[in-house]
Fold these 4 entries.
Entry 1:
Amino acid sequence: MENQIKGQSGPWETVIGMEVHAQVPSAAKLFSGASAAFGAEPNAHVSYIDAGMPGMLPVLNQACVDAAIKTGLGLNAAINRRSVFARKNYFYPDLPQGYQISQFDQPIVGKGAVTIDLPDGTTRRIGITRLHLEQDAGKSLHDQHPTKSYVDLNRCGVALMEIVSEPDMRSAEEAVAYLAKLRMIVRYLGTCDGNMEEGSMRADVNISVRRPGDPLGTRAEVKNVNSVKAVGQAIAYEARRQVEAIEAGGQVVQETRLWDPNKGVTRSMRGKEEAHDYRYFPDPDLLPLELTEARIEAIRAGLPELPDAKKVRFMGMGLSAYDAGVLVAEAERAAYFEAVLVGHGDAKLAANWVLNELLGFLNKDGKDIAQSPVEPGDLASLLGLMADGTISGKIAKDVFEEMYKTGAAPGDIVEAKGLKQVADAGAIGALVDGVLAAHTDKVAEYKAGKDRLFGFFVGQVMKASGGKAAPGAVNALLRERLR
Amino acid sequence: MDAAAVEKIAHLARLALEPGEAEATAPHMTRILGFVEQMGAADTDEVEPLASPHGTTTTLERVDAVTEGGQAAAVLANAPEARAGFFVVPKVVEQEG
């Protein structure tokens, strides 16, 4: 297996599990009515509950519960009819309660699975251990003062879903594919915006190595892995570090390590080990959460079509697995493609134009499809103009470029620039006659058997027509005249 | 409960102990635990766990609406130190090896 690491003493296998924190895009926080929005003045989005004031009682946000159920269903997971909020106790200035309200032994979502898509076209099933709801902490700024830290509690209490995977991944590539798929699913569901740069999706990666077939080795938890790229790099580094440690006669210590994206290394966070005594206990301020069958079924009924199902449906329209995969990678992209199909039913043609022309232009400008200056209906009209012979495929590309630059409708551009394809036999016949008269020498050579000159004549006629002559008509008329 | 256990709990609770305090406290805490443990004598085999004595079985939920906030000055009012809208605390940095 190419996934193995070659050590000096033989092959090693990497075993990876992930804990992903996904922020629920609710208006208010998990247990208070303060805003969960980014970018406010420090401590402007803080209720007395978030600030840990004595006597304040948390009240659970219904939308966050619904988001957790919806995500659980999207991960094909068991929804627990009864779950319990627990206090995870630790001290840090950005945690004014002195504990985080989380879920411990009775999470809202249990076992599930996602199917990941690997670059070679194969798929693998990765187990989900659980999903639970918990509060985010505040933010400490350490660079504002030489001896002080500044604390902003705006994020304190914002709802997070922690999604824990089984240790089912065997390479950095699989871990990256898992994270990408998880991000795709929550974005389709609308239960997290998946923005890793802004921290609304964060990953902790558990990594261990073992001899193929051996029991699991001791794992290290790598934190601060804040981009898809960093996941790949951190795993590659950490697995290699563990193999070298073991082969040098040492051992892997179970610990928390920090990924340093600048140096490209993981570093031990010593001193955290002893503090890992969270003394979880059920939060006495909150009753258990019981979910009714009706509530779960109502959410199930409202689930959108998820990327795997959409991909299969697109492939059923004749698209390749690759093209279908690129289209479903972003929900907006798939929606755009389907909107084009509404106006023009040729799926393969529509996919070609979305993937090659539109995405080509958008990528060059660093834009995504939501910012497309070309409306899907206009692209459909363009494909229609091509299909009914009004314009040629070559002209269509020019028209598309104009549409992209100006946002104008294709019909208007074709009209204004006089780009309509000429299929009229009289008009094309005149052009053909002109070309043949101007190249009597070539006509003689052609008639003497130099067949490949036919392409030359076609080119000349097309040129004379300004690219507007219908190629079929040109071919037919040339054949007739040269007979 | 011995002195070492008291010291560990004190550390987790960020309580500073005077010399000898752990030894002095250990027997008190042992007695408290012993008092609470009397409950273990009750036979609860046939009793369902009770989340609330009020007959409620599930937690209350609020609608997702912003109803609080915009009170930074009030939130900071009791802070020993505050500046520019932030709480100000002695510098804390994650320990790294």
Entry 2:
Amino acid sequence: MQPTLAFVLLIVLWEASVRAYSIAEFLVPAPSAIFAATVAAGSNVTQHALATLFTIAAGFLASVAIGFPLAVAIASAPLLANALYPLLVLTQSIPKVALAPILVIAFGANEVPRIIVTFLVAFFPLVISIAAGLLATPTELVELGRSLKASWLQELFRIRLPSATTFIFSGVKMAITFSVIGAVVGEFVAADRGLGYVITSSMAFFRTPLAFGAMILLSIIGIVLFQIVVVVERVFFSWSISDNQGL
Amino acid sequence: MTDAAIRIDGVVHVYEAQDGSEVPALGNISFDIRDKEFVAIVGPSGCGKSTLLRIIAGLIHPTAGRVAIGGRTVGEPRSEVGIVFQAPTLLPWANVLNNVLFPFKLRRRLDDAVLRTAHELLDLTGLSGFERKMPRELSGGMQQRVAICRALVTNPSILLMDEPFGALDALTREEMGLELLRICGEQPKTIYFVTHSVTEAVLLADRVVVMTARPGRIADIVPIDLPRPRSFDLAATAEYHASAQRIRHHIFAHRARAEPAAV
């Protein structure tokens, strides 16, 4: 109740201030102007939102598909971990905004560079949390598996992976949030569609209300995707959520 | 000598510490455990009793010496051995029944007979009606009962127990010990039982192996001549006190030598 009230109050205050001080629309548009401009762009904005959603989904899925085996490799062989960690950290220290134009030259101005940027932003937290989770399996649980002659695959899928659930979900929550950021960064650099493109193109013509609208849509996408992960965890993995975490 | 279910022969185990130095955990341990015998291992922390359990289980290899089960040297975990750890070590994502059935789920050999055995064991341990509960919905004592069911469901001839009741409160602990004897009374097993509690050791075991620490060595092997079935009433007998006294003497005499300043 209180958050909703605070939110409504903030919107009202914003609207009132913009009107009271008659701030120019291209500087800070009023909430009503943002809403009007976004609705007016209607189906067009929907198309762009779907394009961004596609980039987010593709980048996120790529980060799961590549991040998971990478995490398993890191967790199962210390030698491999030593070899891979510096490379992983390197991919993280490269500024993605700087990398995107180079990728465009290599792959062309299409979907591929955007997906790669999204993947590069999202996969790191995923790999780190899955690997940490696999390694945090209680020793006795691993010994139980060994005493029952579990194979390597059984140990991975029936013992280590399930016991890493909490770690995995915190990684997925970060990855999905970062995917939204990655997709927009990709669209800023080279795109003819997507909400990131809507922001850059409308700002070029000082259509600030529409840029704000796209920005708000992006945060809504981020929140909804995050909440989907939260709901999946609650519904299917309720055992992993401790009782005193009822926030 | 053919009746030795487990033969521990000159077992030495040395750990490599983080700084590279070698820490002796077990120094030349030899004894036999007879078929269907209940042997309790008592000793201070660091005497290597849990290490020895893991060597018998085939989870780790001794630095020297060997352990043989049924005449065959242990090199890897065996299916005739069941283990109960100090923590219940249940799968938190599986319900009680699926935890008990886990050994068979791994071996992909789940049939009606196994299901019946599982239900019988849950019955025997007072857990019927809790089959669909998740581990975290159970008390510590109930969780450990589930772990015992899981160890027994494969009907192992040997049961290795690593301070199985150490994490339970004192009252539950005494109750669980006798309950274990009752459960195993139906299908007698060879039991290697690690404990910190002298009371528990004397009350449950046929023989008590007393160990001293750093490196772990056998100080004495005390036969317990109390009648079976065992009950709390036996704690009032002279035999009980004599055995408990003999065990405590070894443990504390050694401690007094090792830590003269300790009060």
Entry 3:
Amino acid sequence: MNPCIQCGVCSGSCPYGESLDFTPRMLVLMSNLGDLDFTDTIWLCSSCYLCTYRCPSGIKITDEILPKIREIALERNVPEELSRTLMNIMRYGNPFGLPQRERIEWTKELEFDVPILEDVKKTDVLFIPGCYGSYHSRCKEVTKTIARLFKMMGVDFAILKGEKCIGDHCRLLGEFGLFENLAAKNMKLFSRYEFNKIITPDAHAFNSLKNEYPRFGFTAKVLHHSQFFAEHIDEFEFNELDYKVTYHDPCFLGRKNGDYHSCRIILNRIPGLKFVEMKRNKEMALCCGAGGGGIWLDSLVKSRVRERLAERRVKEAYKLGVDVIVTACILDIPMFEDAIKVLGLDLKVMDISEIMMEALR
Amino acid sequence: MILVYAETFEGRIEDITYELLRKAREIAEGEEVWTVVMGKDVKLEGLGASDKVIYVEDERLNNPALHRYALKKIIEMYKPRKVLIGNTPIGIDLALGIMPTVISCVDLNTKAKAISYGGKVFVEVELDGGIYLINKGSFEPLKVDKDVEVEKVSVDIEHDVELVEVVKPEVDVDITKADVVVGVGRGAQNIVDLAEELAEALGGVVGASRPVVDQGILPPSRQVGRSGKTIAPKLYLALGISGAMEHVEGVKAKTVIAINKDKNAPIFRIARYGVVGDVEEIVPLLLEKLEG
Amino acid sequence: MIGVIVRAVPDLVEGLEIEEEEVKPYKYIANELDEYAVEHAVNLKEKYGETVEVIGIANEDAYDEIDEALYTAIAKGADKAYKLLIPRTTGYKVAEALSEFLKKYDMILTGTLAVDEFYGVFGATIADLLNVPYVGGVKGIELEGDYAVVKKELGGGAYLVLKVKKPAVFGIVSLEKPPKYVPFSKLRSVMQSAEIEELDLDVEEDVINVRFVEPPKPEVEFIEGSPEEVAEKLVEIIKGLIR
């Protein structure tokens, strides 16, 4: 039994609180009593981590309580959009149901060759774009930009053509079996080659590689791409950029892994940039809604909540009068760009690597 | 003799029958073409291209599920060289174990040309005789209003299959009458509302592929394809539709424009214009520019 | 007792190598409509207490890959699984080899068509060999004593309701409700505990005179550019077409 005092801070923090049939506080109580009841609103949690962050008793709601309930829900009541996605991940190693060999197609759109670790066997940096970074048409642009930045910096890097979904969402969805299977496959692949560190633009992949894979024996260093660029910030000579920008702290880079500084260091270095903080920033940042499977549950979310999180967030940015929302987790981009389209706002979304590239032109 | 199976529904002969008759006449090698019709009170019209009509006049055969047993008896009695049947929900049940059957034919001469593997492969099959399940729209209909010799036949049907009910859906929109159809496939199922807007802006209606209807996202009356409706609009805008043959069979549009993420999607084979891209990105922009 | 036949077919997502004499898939997968048939069978078990057995059919390249579909069927509730290795042959020969074994079932379900099925309809062939009724295009099954009451799709939402005396064979084409989800851990535990019995049946080889041809490259005109540019060009084209 965990030391829950039923204070309700978790429920009060939950961005979807008013749409849940059973709030986080109730779910923790149920878990303790072993008396579970849940509805399909169990699938609304986007793993934003705010409840866990603020819990005075340190209860692992996001990583343990909710996923364990979802594990049971998987056998009883799974929205079809989610079950189809999980089956795709099981069969094809990616949520899109696209063939494995297309994972590295993005490299063909670059002006230079990207080394494939299965061929070169050894590298300094293993670059893991993740599923969205590899297959999604918009996210691929971020992956290509990062590759170009690496090339400019003279980074010795390679990618894996056999890379499978890192699995953080599967874990958060209660599909522990699938997560372990993906981790085992990825680790078997990693073990065949030599590399010093992994860099990824996907904050969820970053989280699993850093915090979950070690329990399977994974020991390599893992960096989020913003951390790597922040570390090497002195290597860049940025031109002036006349933008008014704000920065969205990704849940699994910021709250979950304590990095609020890397992107701010980078943005601070770009001359001419007018930086404005969002009202809810750093540890209070509002989730984009993609986590915990949220990116695959849009129909359910749309039917249950008053307003999608991504729409709330872009409105918040828009009110600041900024030109650009800078993001760092690759999943933020499709979420925010979709919301911007739906709301018809005049706002641009750029990944930290993209605004860096623009300041280097 | 080449035998053509006349598909009937509620006493009327379906159009596909006349397409089969055209082909039967073409491939007949100095032999007769007969048409077999099953049921009671069927209007025997337009069968003039046949030399003879075998009419299995039997009330029980108003139940199409019994046709396969009657057909087996007819084949055993008259021993046709080849049998032509429409590849439809009714026709597909007429594949018989007693005669090799080629499914999903798009052409038939000395060889049968079938389309398989999700539309990705053409198969040329060389067979003596055989049953051929032929896709709708493969040939021009040959409907001839001429009197033909009718031979009435009765056959024993030993299987117990009873037609309890024929259920027809409540029709909301008749997509077969529209000038413009916007097709929603799996790849576009999240933007049905945008597709409706687009259809409206173009003065048309929204259609759907089978998987989208199966999920209840759009009603069955909107389904385009082999087991749905056949549409012949001026423009078919295929959004996120892979172009599997079951779907494509229902598309007889003048022009097809397809948007799909997969550059190898079979839909591009029937499209005049194609966009390799994300419908969720492009459709909103299309709407912007149409309404602007 | 219900028997469900699940066939290993080419995985179209992974792609095909098309040669004149042979189509070589990169990977195999269970035929989707056969998986729907499994779903119907386990639903009947849930509702009426029927016993369900699954028979997997695969050639030597797919003989391992069919296992996942069979274990998944057991995870969903099937009582027993078999598998049959087949040579390069036709559906007619496979049906012949299986017909005696299939006599124990009073209902046999399979998908109406497999993705690579262009020669014979498997379910129909089995029915004719067993001399039992066959209905394809089935989307719903209920049981009423010695009868099965099935819904047969006609297209456009219309369907027939048929009362069929068992034993019978049905070809499944769709599901009325979404399929069950089998969590990976459940599948894995079934893989460790359940056994698939290999059927020792002689399946004759059969070769038919076929030639495979890749369809001609499309003559479609691809519109390129940024999404904005593409949308603009499309609007121009569309306006010209619907005038």
Entry 4:
Amino acid sequence: MVEKILFIIFAVLTVAGAIGTITRKNMIHGLLLLVFTFLNVAAIFFLTQAYFVAMIQILVYAGAIMVLFVFVLMFLNLRSFQQEKQTHRQRWIALVLSVLVLVEFVAVLYGVTKAKYGFSLASVQGGYSPDQIAAAGGNNQVFAKALFNDMLLPFEVASVVLLVAMVGAIIMVKKEKHGQMATRQWEPGAEPALDVAEEEV
Amino acid sequence: MNDAIAQLIFLIIKAALMSILVVTLVAFIIYFERKFAGFFQGRVGPTYLGPAGAFQSFGDIFKLLSKEDIIPAEADKRVFKLAPYVMFIPAFLVMAVLPFGPVGGTPNLFGYRFDYVIANFDSGLVLLLAMGGIAVYGVVLAGWSSNNKFSLLGGLRAGAQMISYELAMGFAVVGVMVMAGSMNMVKIVEGQSGNFWDWYWAPQLVGGIIFFIASLAELNRTPFDLAEAEQELVAGYLTEYSGMRWGLFMFAEYVNLVVVSGIVSTLYFGGWHAPFTVLDFIPGPVWLLIKIMIMVFIYMWVRWTIFRYRYNQLMSMGWKVLLPLSIANLAVTAIVIAIVG
């Protein structure tokens, strides 16, 4: 009962945060609301006793990735963003795509519950019952077993994809640096014009 | 009264006690810091308010409370007001997983079991890293929302520094996790039962030193206080803050100091365990508090002894020295544990 009430609170806050994210004109405010959304998702994970996933949700999404977003936005001039006209050309495509994603979610959920419990959409359960988790020695043990034994191949593939993306990002940055070398203001060997510097002081 | 209600009441008591403990500790730690700073620099420190200046912190709090609250006209007001709390709350949340004494077992208080920890769950160790990640926002947002060059530079510096050192910190902590075989703070302390040479500081010496250095950077204290390097940036991200908002930042900094000292004591110095098993009759919270105070003193000692690093030195130390070392430490620990068992 308590869990259900808490779930409803956090779910409403999550959706509210998500709506706020896409409606704010100030990008930093939007980002902060996205962080708020992630924190609420972490709270929902916490309610399902998936403590590790909840912590990783905060650590990776709210803590690491969003900080980088905030960093990038801080370097940009936000005022010019706010004055720009927003484009709405993609909205029909976006609408169609989001409806498709929603249909997919419902279909998958429906399929899972139908296969397991007949035609009910409530209380989908994972591969482990609470007794099995207790026997294995805790949530983390079960999680590690699933990740490093049962699902090792997909996990490794995902890791390699991330690594490739990282290496690619570094190479792109390096290329730009080779393209434009820093230009010298004066001839090699000659002193820079001192009188200019002194005047500034 | 059934057990669930008793535990709920205990929980409220524990949370209240923890907050009171931290707040009073912080008030006196600020006084100690000023006294020690004076001692290290050949001065006397505060002397006027109370015996030997002991009530100086309370005087400061009243001064800050009575000051005018100034918000710059061009600041992003909502974010400006939010930032101190973003810094403040994660520090307190970490206190929830710090065990102050034995957990589980026979009833010990009015026929109910009183556990000396607020939240005993697996992944407690990850919580402290996650909260470190959230605390970065406090600094970065404070720097950005002030709409001031110095603030922005300070915020960016602090953010980059905290993210860099978080990695080394995380890898150093994994060494402890592998040794204890758990991410639960209580089990980590239980794994260190025995005399002081059984604690994890001995097998995890490298990891412990890395954790200590990284925690200095996370705390933004000298030698890593580039975010508020006053010679270059006025006061860094704190430049535009005044009155109690500034006080909240300072307060959060010292709460963080207590919390990090508690974490170091828990991970590497046996938590609530006595240094000799003979001394086990003295309750666990006393030992943990003693250890926290010793760690706090060491942090102050470092702060008032070592010079500030240059920014590129700081970054290259984080990425080129601490991170590889911490990964090597983890690899060696894992191999030894796999062979020895």
